[in-house]
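User: Please predict the structure of the protein below. I'd like the answer in structure-token form so I can feed it into my own downstream comparison script.

Assistant: Understood. Taking the following sequence of 324 residues as input:
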Amino acid sequence: MRKPKITVIGGGTGIPVILNSLRLEDADITAVVTVADDGGSSGKLRGSMRLTPPGDLRNVLVAMSDMPRFYEKIFQYRFADGDGDFAGHPLGNLIIAGISEMQGSTYNAMQILTKFFHISGKIYPSSEQPLTLHAIFQDGHEVVGESRIADYQGMIDHVFVTNTYNNERPKASRKVVKAIMESDMIVLGPGSLFTSILPNLVIPEIKEALLATPAEVAYVCNIMTQRGETEHFTDANHVEVLNRHLGRDVIDTVLVNIEKVPEAYMVSNSFDEYLVQVDHDFAGLQKQAKRIISSNFLRLEKGGAFHHGDLVVEELMSLVGKKL
């Protein structure tokens, strides 16, 4: 039986958890990673060099590599606050930025780095141009810039992206549409709904490909609600937002964690953006998706609630195996 082709779309700290476990499976993996981050080190580098932000790509690169732990620590090392112009920059971001400049694009840099780190899968930025994320709130207010969205008090109605440095229509990176169309499964998330997942899906070419692909589309629903994005959201609300941005019900399968996060477990000063556990609305999910997989996907670590990558991937591989 041939290897299943699985494309994972997202960004932030969510999809690396899935990719780190998925790389151990006998699968042909493609990661499509958001390029709308404009905060922190990524924001500074994209502003000064006009390149696609490297931070989310860096985390995906590490997750999909079997590099020794010591190499990973070097690549992820973040310069101290007192280090002048280097302060706050992870060494890996600077390496990606340097190779991007040398090769003419972040897309080309990632193709070199996947070979450098002996990654068998493929990593593509969702666009080869840095994108600016726009959020339109239910009161009509618009916030421009991914890093500013959570600061506005209100409920987001929808988001869209524009090219940061020109007025052209945002385009998907080369080979991204091909990967989506040829996949057996598309995995969305986990990750910040409006700022990690949707910035990829609202690129017109990616949206059109998701509407046309014969692949199974699976969404790994978040465990916790997020300040400034999904406050008071149920799992069904997450799916409704995704389907609404795509124009019709595209999500085939939703993976939902039903294990409780222990009371007062979350360390608020480290994970202050995460509020309470996502409530379940299985009736609402059944109206929007063909299949709901509810199980214990919880991993508790260092005062945070995360997805257990191995448990999620076990379900994904079982699901895609039935499609082959």
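That's the full token string. The mean pLDDT is 96.
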